[in-house]
Specification:
3 helices, HTH psq-type domain-containing protein, about 0% strand, mainly alpha, flat
């Protein structure tokens, strides 16, 4: 590991840009690659959102050990 390691935990895109990009691709206003560069969202993330029926917020980090009750 390099000496000056900087962990990247925050996404480089806005959630609203992801939502608008997914809607553009679903409504066939533009294709996936153009939309990904236009909104600065990774193609794979945009593809997952387009493929799913409902919009889900992308989860970051590891799975939690405790559930909501604990």
């Amino acid at each position: 590991m390099p000496r000056n390691y900087v962990r990247k935990t925050t996404p480089k895109y806005d959630i609203e840009d992801l939502r608008r990009g997914a809607e553009d691709v679903r409504s066939k206003r533009s294709i996936l690659g153009e939309t990904a560069t236009k909104f600065s969202v990774p193609k794979t993330t945009l593809f997952k959102q387009v493929k799913s029926e409902t919009f889900k917020l992308p989860k970051k980090g590891r799975h939690s050990v405790f559930n909501q009750d604990q």
